[in-house]
Amino acid sequence: MAIILPKQVGTEEGKLLFQRAEEVKDFDKSKEIVKFLKGTLEYYGGMGLAAPQIGISKRVFALNIRPTEKYPHLPKIGFKAYFNPKILTISSDSDKDSEGCLSIFYGTLYGLVKRPNKLKVKYLNIEGEEQVEEIIHPLQSRIILHEKDHLDGKIFLQRIEKDDFSKLYWNEKLDIKKMVNLN
Question: Residue 70 domain-assigned?
Fold first, then answer.
């Protein structure tokens, strides 16, 4: 399994997280990026990961969403990659929910972020074929927007409203040793 340690905000490697990623043009080479995204997501148990988070400035992110024992209500989407995504529409209905990020203290810091509950996204699949998808599940919409932000050089902390910064919290139950030890 190909695993890359997520780049961290506040480090030299993490500077890439604040830059707009480049369009994907070579889909054969980009299939390797997808292998790294999948391996890293599976290792860390995340639901979404963008190429800049693993040190690659390309406009591609992946989701890995499925029901779990802890979250049985999640949609069964599985692993899916989005190349050069464009958000076409977003719903006016939104909610605030907790977000974390593997590139911010290895996913141990969380904050409330307001995001639209539904959206329409246009993207290319792994074969380079154009797709348009209506996203109606609020969590899937949140993850897509979070990962799309990474492609535009933004992190979730930049989306937190001023009054919600005092509500940031740590998930102290995560095993940081696993996060940084790939052996």
Answer: yes
- Residue-wise pLDDT for 71-111, tens only, equals 788 888 899 999 999 999 999 999 999 999 999 988 889 99
138/21 Cα distance (integer angstroms): 25
In the sheet with 48-50, reading across from the earlier edge strand, the strands are: 48-50, 60-65, 78-90, 119-124, 130-135
pLDDT of residue 28: 86
Global pTM? Answer: 0.91
In a domain, 6, yes or no: no
| 127 catalytic per annotation | no
Phi, psi dihedrals of residue 82, rounded to the nearest 5°: -120, 120
CATH classification at residue 85 = 3.90.45.10
CA 157 vs CA 20, 167, 174: distances in Å: 17, 12, 20
> 42, 99, 147, 172: which is the annotated catalytic residue?
147
Q: For the chain, how far is it from start to end, CA to CA, in angstroms?
A: 12
Which residues form the domain of 26?
13-180
- In a domain, residue 8? The reply is no
Task: At 124, give phi and psi (nearest 5°).
Answer: -105, 140
Please compute the mean of the pLDDT values over residues 139-166 and round it to a whole number. Answer: 96
